Amino acid sequence: MRLEFKILKKINKELGSFEISGNDKGLSFRFGYWSEINMDTLQKILPYGWIINEELVDDDDDCGRLYCYNINKDVLDYEADLEAQDYDIWGNEKI
């Protein structure tokens, strides 16, 4: 699972500052102080084949709603994986 630095820069520009951590699901993004973001904007920035899951971490009277966003690569997205390689969907080397 890889994200190019230019993707991270674009996320920062479009959605604001964030922190990234790894977890068993992939990568977890936290924007601002656990802010809610527009998932469509994030989805448009991420390369094809990435899945976003919004997670409500906490909801209390003091802090309000706290969100993080888990992203991972769709393991069933064979076409995107093959395009990242130099082979077509039938396993033939591209010229």
Write a compact overview of the structure shown.
This protein has 95 residues and is α+β, with helices and mostly antiparallel strands. It is built from three helices and four strands. It has one domain.
Structure description:
The protein is an alpha+beta fold. It has one domain (5-84). Helix content is 26%, strand content 35%. The chain contains three helices and four strands. The protein has helices at 5-15, 39-45, 78-84; strands at 18-23, 26-31, 50-60, 64-73. It has a four-stranded antiparallel β-sheet, with helices on one face. A hairpin with a 2-residue loop joins strand 1 (18-23) and strand 2 (26-31). The longest helix is centred in the N-terminal third of the chain and has 11 residues, at 5-15.
User: Residue ranges: pLDDT <50 for 5 or more in a row?
Assistant: none
SSE order:
HEEHEEH
What profile does the largest beta sheet have?
Answer: 4 strands, antiparallel
Q: What's the β-strand tally? A: 4
Q: Rg from C-alpha positions?
A: 16 Å
Sum up the structure in keywords.
95 residues, alpha+beta, four-stranded antiparallel sheet, 3 helices, 4 strands, globular
Question: Secondary structure elements and their pairing?
Answer:
Layout: H1 5-15, E1 18-23, E2 26-31, H2 39-45, E3 50-60, E4 64-73, H3 78-84
Antiparallel strand pairs: 1-2, 2-4, 3-4
